[in-house]
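2024-03-11 09:14:02 INFO worker-7 job=invfold-0412 stage=load source=structure_tokens
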């Protein structure tokens, strides 16, 4: 009986669980873990905000470019650029050394371009297209001297005309000058002479040579 007890005490169990030898790490800091999670949450929000800002900026640039293109089309910028390019290409073709008579062709094109440029400048400044010619004195015509009273009246009328504002058109006048009846505009006066415009030409006439002066 005693031998049986010794054998039972020294016998190994038939079934047992081997526990792994696990070393426990440091306990987590709850405050640090909370901050880390908050940072992870905030990071995607910043990225999303940045993407939205970039998208808004891109749309703004596209709208500005679209408006600029619309303005260019409305004001004919592209048409003007095309005309200038065509003129440049034409000049380049003319300047090719192979064809004959290039010098004359270049002069002709330059004259046309200068004429168009001057016309545009006159239109933009509101000036008349008609170009005044240099003033030239009419030939002296021997007549009797005008009556002083008539000369005084004519001077008064001429002074009223010359006081007309620059933006207003000066009235037309008629008079007999050197035996011929002429319609003209008075554009200036100096001493005993008066500057008149007949059509597109300008002349200087002595007051003593004017007869039957009237304002039309």
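2024-03-11 09:14:09 INFO worker-7 stage=emit residues=216
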């Amino acid at each position: 009986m005693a031998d049986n007890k010794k054998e039972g005490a020294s016998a190994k169990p038939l079934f047992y669980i081997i526990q792994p030898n696990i070393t426990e790490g440091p306990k987590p800091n709850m405050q640090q873990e909370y901050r880390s999670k908050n940072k992870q949450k905030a990071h995607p929000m910043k990225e999303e905000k940045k993407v939205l800002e970039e998208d808004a900026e891109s749309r703004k640039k596209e709208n500005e470019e679209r408006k600029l293109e619309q303005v260019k089309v409305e004001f004919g910028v592209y048409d003007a650029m095309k005309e200038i390019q065509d003129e440049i290409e034409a000049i380049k073709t003319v300047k090719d050394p192979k064809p004959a008579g290039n010098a004359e062709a270049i002069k002709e094109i330059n004259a046309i371009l200068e004429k168009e440029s001057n016309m545009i400048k006159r239109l933009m400044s509101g000036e008349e297209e008609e170009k005044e010619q240099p003033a030239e004195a009419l030939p002296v015509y021997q007549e009797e001297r005008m009556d002083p009273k008539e000369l005084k009246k004519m001077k008064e009328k001429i002074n009223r005309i010359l006081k007309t504002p620059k933006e207003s058109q000066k009235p037309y006048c008629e008079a007999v000058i050197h035996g011929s009846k002429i319609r003209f505009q008075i554009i200036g006066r100096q001493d005993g002479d008066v500057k008149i415009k007949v059509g597109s030409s300008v002349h200087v006439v002595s007051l003593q040579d004017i007869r039957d002066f009237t304002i039309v």
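2024-03-11 09:14:09 INFO worker-7 stage=report msg="The radius of gyration is 51 Å."
2024-03-11 09:14:10 INFO worker-7 job finished
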